[in-house]
Design a protein that fits this description.
This protein is of the alpha/beta class. The chain has 13 helices and 12 strands. The longest helix has 47 residues.
């Protein structure tokens, strides 16, 4: 072990401690990328935990292919100064970052999308907007990068353009790219001309394109499934319509190219990687132009063949596993960035931790007292029930009822005498 523990943290809820590993479906490219990153760190020989939401089946496949496996902790814990915590940027609640910011740990923020597109960009007044509506110039702003750095985060990304924008803002950002230890399944014979994805934020836009194509074009909507199932479906189509207005590097586009499907995408996403002619993709200037672009491509088999071959070659090279592990190894071996406030944040975090521990103890004591009172009440109730079942209780009850009737009769008689006296 070269340093302390490395932690790839995928929080599923806001809390003060780093969660244990809990089951979740790997339902996005970003989550899958973080799984691959955890395995890559393990492949460098470092001790690494993956905490929070983990797709155990997907992680097992990745680990078996790479010959290295992250640890899967079963108990939560607080981050400490010996930890190196890697967390994705796409978390909407600012409190999600508090456990690392106030821990004294070395912090690495993995930028999987332009800052501010899906997650809190470390500025006041932010609220999420639909990707169809967010202004392009509202994401990846210089103040985002500077604020992240000011809170002690080192920045990593798989988007060259984003790394350049951060550096232009005066903030270092390490490009690590992507890697895939699993072999791609062999492409199957082409069964469809055009495919779209059924479960994707751009699905409705993609359907609007496919419905405008000539009826002779064989269209197919790829249903949700495992990564391998989706890849095999991509391998059966000639063209993938993916009208992403803005997102990250586009894992979908990369996987389609790797499987021999030519992506047709909008030209509005400046952060895409490999989604151009050199990478084996076709750019459309607008959603309205997409049907014509797809039609022209299908009518040119030779161009389609060249793009397909180019895409498969470049996309698979893009995720070369050994090169990826090497980049991750080099990035982790670099000395951490200067962070003069790290000790101060840790001191604040320790005081908050002490107060939280005191509150937890106080709450525990009150819960125990409440439980004891409940037990005492239950004991008294049972004893009363037992007492009410005895002959002595029944005799006493008859006596008490008779006594009460006599008292009522005496009170009534006195009232009658007073009334008679008043009227006499």
């Amino acid at each position: 072990m070269r340093e302390g523990t490395y932690v790839v943290w995928l929080p599923t809820q806001v809390e003060w401690r780093l969660q244990s590993a809990v089951s979740r479906v790997c339902d996005s490219g970003g989550i899958r990328t973080m799984h691959e990153l955890a395995v890559a760190i393990a492949a460098t020989g470092r001790r690494v935990e993956i905490r929070g939401g983990v797709d155990f089946g997907e992680l097992e496949l990745l680990g078996a292919a790479a010959g290295a496996m992250p640890e899967l902790p079963t108990r939560p814990r607080r981050a400490g100064p010996d930890d190196v915590v890697l967390v994705p940027e796409g978390l909407a609640d600012p409190l999600s970052f508090a456990p690392t910011v106030l821990s004294g740990a070395r912090q690495i923020l993995v930028l999987l999308a332009p800052t501010g597109l899906f997650g809190w960009p470390f500025v006041d007044g932010w609220s999420p907007m639909p990707p169809l509506a967010v202004p392009i110039d509202a994401v990846a702003r210089p103040d985002h990068f500077r604020a992240m750095s000011a809170l002690g985060f080192e920045l990593w990304t798989h988007m060259p353009r984003l790394a350049e924008e951060a550096k232009a803002a005066g903030v270092d950002c390490t490009y690590i790219g992507n890697g895939r230890p699993l072999a791609y399944p062999p492409p199957l014979p082409k069964a469809y001309d055009v495919a779209t994805l059924a479960q994707n934020r751009w699905a409705e836009l993609a359907r609007s394109v496919s419905t405008k194509l000539d009826p002779t074009v064989r269209c197919h909507e790829i249903a949700p499934g495992s990564n391998e199932e989706v890849l095999r479906a991509m391998g059966q189509t000639r063209v993938l319509v993916h009208p992403s207005r803005i997102e990250g590097h586009s894992r979908i586009g990369q996987e389609a190219r790797a499987m021999g499907a030519v992506p047709v995408v909008l030209d509005s996403n400046p952060y895409a990687v490999g989604l151009d002619d050199a990478g084996g993709a076709v750019l459309a200037p607008s959603l309205e132009e997409m049907p014509r672009v797809v039609t022209d491509l299908l009518r040119d088999p030779e161009r389609l063949r060249r793009l397909r071959e180019r895409g498969m070659k470049t996309a698979r090279a893009q995720v070369d596993w050994d090169e990826y592990v090497g980049r991750v190894d080099v990035a982790l071996a670099r000395p951490p960035s200067a962070d003069p406030a790290r000790g101060a944040r840790r001191a604040i975090g320790e005081r908050l931790t002490q107060r939280e521990d005191l509150l937890r103890k106080e709450i525990t004591v009150r819960i125990e007292e409440s439980e004891r009172l409940h037990e005492d009440h239950e004991t008294l109730r049972q004893k009363l029930h037992q007492l009410q079942s005895t002959r002595a209780w029944r005799v006493a009850r008859v006596y008490w009822l008779a006594r009460d009737r006599i008292r009522l009769a005496v009170v009534g008689a006195r009232r009658l005498r007073r009334r008679d006296a008043d009227h006499g």
